[in-house]
Amino acid sequence: MDIGLLSVSMNVYSTMRIAEEAKNLGHYVEQIDHTKCAVKLGSGKPQIYYQGDNITNHFQAIIPRIGTKVTKHGSAIVKQFEMNGVFSTARSLSITRARNKVRTLQIMARKGIPIPETLFSINPDNIEEQIEILGGMPVIIKLQEGTQGLGVILAETKKSAKSIIDTFYKMNTSILIQKYIEESNGEDIRLFVVGNRVVASIKRTSAPDEFRSNVHRGGAAEQIEPTKMELNMALNATKHMGLGVAGVDIIRSKKGPLLIEVNASPGLQGIEEATGINIAKEIIKFVEKNGRRTRK
Asked: What does pTM read for this prediction?
């Protein structure tokens, strides 16, 4: 197969590993920097250009690795490939939905998947009331479109929470506020879904003096065996988001597992190193099963 790997650089671990496994399985793979792609609309069939070349019909499948800062443009490029009949491991609509934490949690709540108590508002005049709606302190304040633990703040006092929330509101920055789940103890679990299977699972533990468990923030990771409920939550969340590949993050609470995020471009390094599982190969095998059927 001819596979387009939409990523800004081959120096990124996940991009490098996916390309490596595609080649190992006998496929042609090309890294395409989606930030340098352009789409021509108008007379005739829409065309996708990359560095002066028309790549509209170059690929039977694409694997998007779209970064936060270029979500809108990257999703538009993915959408054009989709409209031209190219299989994608992540639908354009699913990428934009997953990037926004509020939209993700709205979908999960509607589908009956347990999530932490969450509130979002743009009203700077009733911050104290917002905190009380969540049951008081402490609270977690999150940017709606943060990633890798960036833009996630633990506010332990009402004074600090009001100051942080008020600042974000005045900066016209979209946030959400969540009740802090103390018993999670700086831990969460990441379940990596490919197709209709959870192919790997890890528990991530925060570094000392840090409550965020992301490996990028210095956290540690170890392989675990998730519960049946956690497996079902991850698979259902991925299906409801319309993703073929996803990283589903869950915390364990006294009330049971709670979903906190669905990542449309999950990183491979931490989970491959912790589990020894060749996840990149699983992604390519998933593409093999689906890409050829959509070729026009």
From this structure: 0.91
Q: Distance between CA atoms of 294 and 88, rounded to whole angstroms? A: 10
Could you read off the pLDDT of 99-137 as tens digits, one per residue? 999 999 999 999 999 999 999 998 888 999 999 999 999
Tell me 90's DSSP state: B
Taking the C-alpha atoms of residue 106 and residue 159, their distance in angstroms, rounded to an integer, is 28
Contacts of 276 (CB under 8 A, 6+ apart): 223
Burial class (CB in 10 A: 0-12, 13-18, 19+), 12: middle
Q: Give every strand in the sheet of 245-253, ordered side by side.
A: 220-223, 197-205, 187-194, 245-253, 256-263
Please, what is the angle between helix 92-99 and helix 228-241, to 10°?
120
Question: What tokens appear for 186 in the block?
Answer: 């700086």
Q: Where are the alpha helices (DSSP H) in the chain?
A: 13-24, 71-83, 92-99, 101-110, 127-133, 158-170, 228-241, 269-275, 279-291
